[in-house]
Design goal:
Elements (H helix, E strand, L loop, with lengths): L1 E5 L5 H6 L4 E5 H4 L11 H6 L7 E3 L15 H18 L3 E4 L2 H4 L7 H21 L3 E4 L13 H11 L4 E6 H6 L4 H7 L3 E6 L17 H9 L5 E4 L7 H18 L1
Parallel strand pairs: 1-2, 1-8, 2-3, 3-4, 4-5, 5-6, 6-7, 7-8
Length: 259
């Protein structure tokens, strides 16, 4: 088990000072797949990072829809090819498929058609990920952020239908808790969890900072399943990593040890 923090690569030194093992970037910030190669600086930024960058989230920009009446599949495929190529270049092994704005259904849009469109995207993207030694992970999101793929069981229905080892599932404790997902479902898919995001339910603050979230039941299931991947603190708006970071990392280590 390795602990990381979701942050811009420019903050890698502060994230390392907090005690993290790695940094998780944002695809739009680091890989910038809509920027020409001649202007892309991500390789240099990652190369100068004080920490490895094995994972990145926010796979698709909100402007590049994969659901709805006006999906430009050729543009989506071209974008995805660039993402996978650049991700491999900088050493990313995990890409997170959350991307609420890209996958959300327009009002009144047919849900079965939306599912079909998401599966069409995944059927294209997952083999590309495999070609570049990358695993794509489906992220269930809260109902406040997204109107599709909320629970682990819903995410796993896509994983099962695609049926490819390079498409697995992500557990985000914040979304898990606010959606009232359950530990039984986590136990049922724990062996297919390939990445984890953590934040307290109360205020989505870094782990331990609210004093109201217990990670041990979740961690216990992951440990029993032999989980040895990364666990990233994802707390939007948190930028002062050196102040709370050591406390947050120490808290997560204790929670893991006690689980």
């Amino acid at each position: 088990m390795r602990l990381g923090i979701c942050a811009a690569v420019e903050s890698a030194a502060d994230v390392r000072s907090a005690g993290a093992d790695f940094l998780e970037e944002n695809v739009q910030n680091l890989l910038q797949a809509q920027t020409p190669d001649s202007k892309w600086k991500g390789k240099q930024l990652a190369g100068n990072s004080a920490l490895p960058v094995p994972a990145a989230n926010c796979l698709l920009p909100g402007t590049l829809k994969i659901v709805g009446p006006s999906v430009d599949f050729a543009q989506v495929k071209s974008y995805t090819i660039t993402v996978m190529r650049r991700a491999q270049t900088v050493g990313i092994k995990i890409l997170v498929f959350g991307s609420a704005a890209a996958r959300n259904l327009p009002e009144g849009f047919d849900r079965q058609l939306a599912r079909k469109q998401i599966l069409e995207f995944l059927a294209m993207a997952v083999p590309l990920a495999a070609e570049h030694s990358i695993t794509l992970v489906a992220e269930p999101l809260s109902r406040d952020e997204s109107n599709i793929i909320h629970t682990l069981s819903e995410a796993m229905s896509y994983v099962h239908e695609i049926g490819h080892p390079n498409f697995q599932c992500l557990l985000d404790t914040f979304h898990f808790w606010v959606n009232n997902d359950n530990l039984a479902d986590l136990q049922g898919c724990a062996k297919q969890i390939r990445h984890v995001h953590v934040a307290d339910r109360q205020g989505r603050v870094p782990p331990g900072e609210s004093g109201k979230s217990d990670y041990r039941p979740v961690f216990r299931i992951l440990k029993q399943a032999g989980y040895d991947g990364g666990i990233s603190v994802e707390s939007p708006g948190w930028i002062n990593y050196t102040a709370a970071g050591p406390r947050v990392i120490a808290y997560l280590k204790r929670q893991w040890q006690e689980s």
